Amino acid sequence: MIAAAPSAGTPPPFRHHTLSVLVENKAGVLARVSGLFARRGYNIFSLAVAPTDDERLSRITIVVDVESAPLEQITKQLFKLINVVEIVELDPAQSVERELMIATVRAEAGVRSQVIELVDVFQGRIVDVGIEALTVEVAGPPSKLDDFEDLMRAFGIDELQRTGRVALPKLDRTGSRLRRVS
Known about the structure:
alpha+beta; Alpha-Beta Plaits; 2 domains; 4-stranded antiparallel beta sheet; 4 helices; 9 strands
């Protein structure tokens, strides 16, 4: 039996690793990191970068295809870069992951209310309105955006852009919430 190819919104069957890389906030650091991936032939599935609360540091969130290279090899190569301060692998079960999608969806008069209702169900917003289309934004876990994208394909997607994934570890919930009163 031959397995069907994944649909456009369905993630490929291989596993990804999410790396949170803390780097010095200096010119050229992102170019060096992305250049390392290109030189080694590592496939980047998603990349997002922005300064942290400390203006001296930036956080690069990289989602890596593990079929292109072993994770240990990737992290060793990253640590060789001078401006890398810390690398943490984020387990999806132990982290909060989010993406943003902006899509222009065909929404003629007869189906516009259905599109608006689905945007509302997915807690999205309509950010632009045209005669025959709507531009919408939806934010959330990547799987939520995949589901929304699959549903919007039935109406017709004119344009679509997704940001790279951003992620942070979940907060510790093992501490005692109550203190004993004597």
